[in-house]
Here is the input.
Amino acid sequence: MIEIVTIETPSLGDRTYLATDGASALVIDPQRDIDRVLAAAAARGVAVTHVFETHIHNDYVSGGLALARQSGAAYHVNAADAVAYSRVGISDGDTIEVGPSMRVRVIATPGHTFTHLAYALEDALTGAVAAVFTGGSLLHGSTGRPDLFGAEHTLALAAAQYASARRLAAVLPDRTPVCPTHGFGSFCAATTAGAAGSTIGEEKRSNPALTLGEGSYVTALVAGLEAYPAYYAHMAAANASGPDAPDHVPPARVTAGELGWRISAGDWVADLRGRRAFAGGHIPGSLSFEYGDSFATYLGWLIPWGTPLVLVGETGRQIAAAQRDLSRIGIDRLAGAAIVSSAGWPASSRLATYPVSDFPGLAAAWDVQDLTVLDVRRISERARGQIAGSVHVPLHELPARLHQLPRGSLWVHCQGGYRASIAASLLQAAGHTVTVVDDDFGRAAGAGLPVTGPSGRAAAAVA
Here is the structure.
């Protein structure tokens, strides 16, 4: 009996898989913090003997090499990938025996990357397919994005992605569980993918790559692509060079008094507290990155790569959790950390603040203040509904476009408040007068604001 264990990484929208027959274990696409994988193996009393990468990842630093070295496992990577370390090079059609009753069949599935592989896990005794690990190829209701290698390759990779999905559907039984790495919030997914389980048969009925013709699929796929995090540019190179396991040594503690000069020197000070607590009092020039599943993605997206980073948190445990998340995207060395409750934290009179409101509050201010509404959502979100007359600057573009914004009162909103808080902190640090709208955009029309839908007509409600 083969057991498949899913190890979730919600902060990146990815999954790692461990499969075991009770004697040996294999791992697919491990995240960098391999202690979670080793703990899952230890809990089942098995050793990891084989590690597989579906591709050289673009959205996180892999733990595959470190896991293989620590466990003594064979490390399987496409033979066509140019990497700086020893591995077991594998290619389309290869079969790898794993333990007494598992084998892995290698299936080339280019599209998300040029050298992408999928792995069909089979019961070596019966030949039954237990699952297919599809990485960034066939996802639940979607596919991996094909544009990470530049616009000049996007159409060719999109066509390859279509052919790869069709190949998997043709060679695998309908009952085969589909186990993708990406697609649960990851920007590596071309479109939003489902989090529930799926099978080849279910994908045949619902996945655009399997229900549309090639031309329609490619056109729709490419038209729906939006920006992806800037830190992706550094991940493939890190993975090809052979990343070590992260060093989770706690960062040096710094005093509140040091934070001001660090900000003046160009360091980033990221405050992990809740966004309303940040608005109520923070070190001037520090930035709001409330700790949660979106933290690492947006901090990694916005920080100029290599900038010294100091974290401000409520507890050492919170800072340690944030440090683990950052290590997954290659931010290993922190310049320091400060605890808000520590001795010497500034009195409230020395802290910066800004107002927090909601959409009814914005509607009330609309007629009595000279204000500008700033929308920092993605293009696709704004297309579904927007406040008439608002200025649109997606959050990832904001640092480069701060100079384009008016100097008067700015009310900034997103879809639910998280990104608006980041934006408000960036704006205040740049000298703007700002109010953050911490509210669900679905309430905007009901608050009496002039919300328009995709056609430009007033919308009764916008979800």
Notes: Residues 455-463 have pLDDT under 50 and may be disordered. The first strand starts at residue 3 and ends at 9. The CA atoms of residues 111 and 156 lie 8 Å apart.
